[in-house]
TrEMBL record:
Domain 3-hydroxyisobutyrate dehydrogenase-like NAD-binding: 165-292
Family from the record: Belongs to the HIBADH-related family.
The name this protein goes by in its record: 3-hydroxyisobutyrate dehydrogenase
Protein keywords: Branched-chain amino acid catabolism, NAD, Oxidoreductase
The enzyme's E.C. designation: 1.1.1.31
Swiss-Prot/TrEMBL catalytic activity: 3-hydroxy-2-methylpropanoate + NAD(+) = 2-methyl-3-oxopropanoate + NADH + H(+)
InterPro entries: 3-OH-isobutyrate_DH-rel_CS (IPR002204), 6-PGluconate_DH-like_C_sf (IPR008927), 6PGD_dom2 (IPR013328), 6PGDH_NADP-bd (IPR006115), HIBADH (IPR011548), HIBADH-like_NADP-bd (IPR029154), HIBADH-related (IPR015815), NAD(P)-bd_dom_sf (IPR036291)
Biological or metabolic pathway of the protein: Amino-acid degradation; L-valine degradation
Biological processes per GO annotation: L-valine catabolic process
Length: 296
């Protein structure tokens, strides 16, 4: 078992840290929200007074933060933690950020003799709680091999997709497809409802037909169709619309950097931007159906 520092205990990070503690790892945690720390402590983690305090004796450092600026600020800022991480520790950033930011931090870590991988996740809050996440890893082979036992306590699918930053590229590809699929699924269900169809029956049909997807089976965007989906609890507790909007923006930046064309990705980004402006930015991204159904 490893001594692990875990920084960032949001909707995803909190359950991930809890699963590490339940697996028998020694986990020291920090988050700016005291309640998030308290929940992790209830699951068996130990509270640290600040980010640097989590690093005492750490063999593995895991971060799960909202955006590139938070990751760069934590590691590279005036009070960045890179200079405090014990020699030989493995750094795993599970945030979804710009590939360039991931490479920048990894290069700074390497300059200090530290191994670092970018390991963004897929699977949503349900996957984080169940320990069934997919980890999409960028970094060298040796670092990936070192990370496997730790990642396996939080997920069941591990993909090594390339060098530093590659994990972020692959995650953005996944989320761009997910954003478009969720939007068109909501649009299709809204069309059926407008014609008097039962959204539950329509969704059940779609879930076993050619439009089958994660959006029909796990995170259906129509309220009342799936009991455990965010849509059935007021679009709360899932993957925020503004986080999807951020990821689609990063996908657009990644496309521009290599001259790729992503017309559906850009259309999806605009839809989630409109949903955010409609006041739904903090709700689960499946709330985009509100735009498509005309719901106020």
């Amino acid at each position: 078992m490893s001594h692990i520092a875990f920084i960032g205990l949001g909707n995803m990070g909190g359950p991930m840290a809890a699963n590490l503690a339940r697996a028998g790892h020694s986990v020291r945690v920090f988050d700016l929200v005291p309640a998030a720390v308290a929940h992790a402590v209830e699951a068996g983690a130990v509270a640290a007074k600040d980010a640097v305090d989590t690093l005492a004796g750490a063999e593995v450092v895991i971060t799960m933060l909202p955006a590139s600026r938070h990751v760069e600020g934590l590691f590279l800022g005036e009070q960045g933690i890179l200079s405090h991480i014990p020699a030989g520790a493995l750094v795993i950033d599970c945030s979804t950020i710009a590939p360039a930011s991931a490479r920048k931090v990894a290069e700074a870590a390497a300059a200090r003799g530290l191994s670092m991988i970018d390991a963004p996740v897929s699977g949503g809050t349900a996957g984080a709680a169940a320990g069934t996440l997919t980890f999409i890893v960028g970094g060298d082979d040796a670092s990936f091999d070192r990370a496997k036992p730790v990642l396996s306590a939080m997920g069941k699918n591990l993909f090594h997709v390339g060098a530093s930053g590659a994990g972020q590229v692959a995650k953005l590809c996944n989320n761009m497809a997910l954003g478009a699929i969720m939007a068109v699924t909501g649009e299709a269900i809204a069309l059926g409802v407008a014609h008097g169809l039962d959204p539950r029956v329509l969704s059940q049909m779609m879930a076993v037909s050619t439009s089958r997807s994660w959006a029909t089976e796990v995170c259906n965007p129509w309220p009342g169709v799936l009991e455990n989906a965010p849509a059935s609890r007021g679009y709360t507790g899932g993957f925020g619309n503004d986080l999807m909007l951020k990821d689609l923006g990063l996908a657009a930046e990644a496309a521009m950097s290599v001259g790729a064309s992503i017309p559906l990705g850009e259309l999806s980004r605009n839809l989630y931007a409109m949903n955010s402006k409609a006041g739904n930015g903090k709700l689960d991204f499946s709330s985009v159906v509100k735009l498509l159904s005309g719901e106020k």
